[in-house]
Design a protein that fits this description.
This protein has about 450 residues and is an alpha/beta fold. It has three domains: about 200 residues, FAD/NAD(P)-binding domain (3-Layer(bba) Sandwich), CATH 3.50.50.60; about 110 residues, FAD/NAD(P)-binding domain (3-Layer(bba) Sandwich); about 110 residues, 2-Layer Sandwich (Enolase-like, domain 1). It is built from 14 helices and 22 strands.
């Protein structure tokens, strides 16, 4: 029987990072993964392929809308969907093979197959049982569907099917105005589809800053996406003319419907723990089906840990990665730590949206005194030069101490700009610290500095 210090179940961002970190710390480590490739949902059918399509379609938008403005004369741009899919697949393969290389470099064993845990210290894959001192469950999540809606991944799809449609649709209904729905909806809107988003709540991207939500919806609407808010989906019916989504408006119970070639069900994700044998093992789950863990990512079963989407908290690849490194350090006898107050969130549409820390709504609920510094990208020379003046940086700080409590951006490069504030918050910085730090000109990052200045005497370029 093979013996390991650690077996990680799942080779997504949390699992493979955990395994590599454990190997760096001297632990004999293996990863069990049932896919033919490493990287989990993120690298295979999630984060990476969606970003490839977002990049391709943003390039299309630039060619159609902005090239002529810059004196770049081209003929009509043609979309070769099959070629775009090949490009997407090449991006996936480059990343997944990169994980294979890292496993070999760090002497991490890849056990191919699907795992079950028959007992503490035992992991079974097929007919083979492996012995291990510790187990980390990093099994990730899967799309959650609405009751009564049949997913065929052809005309009624989850994010997985939406990444690999056989042909470009002329119309699409997106059920759910969260991150996944808006990213993929914007992809197909740029490719010429009439996209309608049907959302149960009254605002897009639930939980984000209210001002960002309103601006974000307005900008996406300007790009051609339509929104039906406060609508409870009742059914999806397949017909000769397409798929009809019936819904009821919550404010007045009025019933209506919309028909499209493809329906994307983007109503969130749920932990994927099927087949692990958690019931038999006695692992405690939360009411939402997540694996309950303590501050050291340990379950109630000795030697069994869990991280990432299978556990409570935001379902973000980088959250899982941080937990993977931390739990590996705990198992190795070190002190692993994750600062859950400084985990950024990013939406990779155009413009991008990013946030970290508290929103105004949260601080009002807490009764905490705060002040806001805000700066529009219309005042940023670099943004205006590249037709990206929409959006703003919003910095929220403690009214008395000036310590940064949160930041919310919508604009060019928001997903990269947010990390300046993440580092600042990690070190307990004040807005004045950011404001007094020299920022290169001309860069998008100057907008962050201007927002910090706006928390004091005022921005310079506003």
């Amino acid at each position: 029987m093979s013996q390991y210090d650690l077996i990680v179940i799942g080779a997504g961002p949390g699992g493979y990072v955990c395994a590599i970190r454990a190997a760096q710390l001297g632990l004999k480590t293996a990863v069990v993964e049932g896919r033919d490739t490493l990287g989990g949902t993120c690298l295979n059918v999630g984060c990476i392929p969606s970003k490839a399509l977002l990049h391709a379609t943003h390039s299309l938008h630039e060619a159609e809308e902005n090239f002529a403005k810059m004196g770049l004369q081209t003929g009509p741009v043609q979309v070769d969907w099959a070629k775009m899919q090949e490009y997407k697949q090449s991006v996936i393969e480059g990343n997944t093979k990169g994980i294979e290389f890292l496993f070999k470099k760090n002497k991490v064993d890849w056990i191919k197959g699907w795992a079950t845990i028959p007992a503490p210290g035992r992991v079974q894959v097929g007919d083979t049982t492996y012995e291990t001192r510790n187990i980390v469950i990093a099994s990730g999540s899967e799309p959650s569907a609405l009751p009564g809606i049949e997913i065929d991944e052809e005309t009624v799809v989850t994010s997985t099917g939406a990444l690999a449609l056989a042909a470009l649709p002329k119309s699409m209904v997106v059920i759910g105005a969260g991150v996944i729905g808006l990213e993929l909806g914007s992809v197909y809107a740029r490719l010429g589809a009439a996209v309608t988003v049907v959302e149960y709540l009254d605002a897009v991207t639930p939980g984000m800053d209210g001002e960002v939500q309103k601006t974000f919806q307005r900008l996406l609407s300007r790009q051609g996406m339509k929104f039906v808010m406060g609508a409870a989906v009742q059914s999806v019916a397949k017909g000769k003319d397409g798929q009809t989504v019936s819904y009821k408006l919550r404010k007045n119970d009025k019933e209506d419907s919309v028909t499209a070639d493809v329906v994307l069900v983007a109503t969130g994700r749920r932990p994927f723990t099927e087949g692990l044998g958690l019931d038999r093992l006695g692992v405690t789950l939360t009411p939402r089906g997540q694996i309950a863990v303590n501050g050291q990512w340990a379950t109630n079963v000795q030697g069994v840990f869990a991280i990432g989407d299978a556990t409570p908290g935001p379902m973000l690849a980088h959250k899982a990665e941080d937990e993977g490194m931390a739990v590996a350090e705990v198992i190795a006898g070190q002190h692993g730590h994750v600062n859950y107050d400084v985990i950024p969130g990013v939406i990779y549409t155009h413009p991008e949206v990013a946030s970290v820390g508290k929103t105004e709504e949260q601080l009002k609920d807490e009764g905490r005194a705060y002040k806001v510094g805000k700066f529009s990208f219309m005042g940023n020379g670099r943004a205006k030069a590249v037709f990206a003046g929409d959006g703003f940086v919003k910095l929220i700080v403690d009214k008395e101490t000036d310590r940064i409590l949160g930041c919310h951006l919508i604009g060019p490069g928001a997903g990269d700009l947010i990390h300046e504030i993440c580092v600042a918050m990690e070190f307990g910085a004040a807005a004045e610290d950011v404001a007094r730090t020299c920022h290169a000109h001309p860069t998008f990052s100057e907008a962050v500095r201007e927002a910090a200045l706006a928390c004091g005497d005022g921005a310079i370029h506003a």
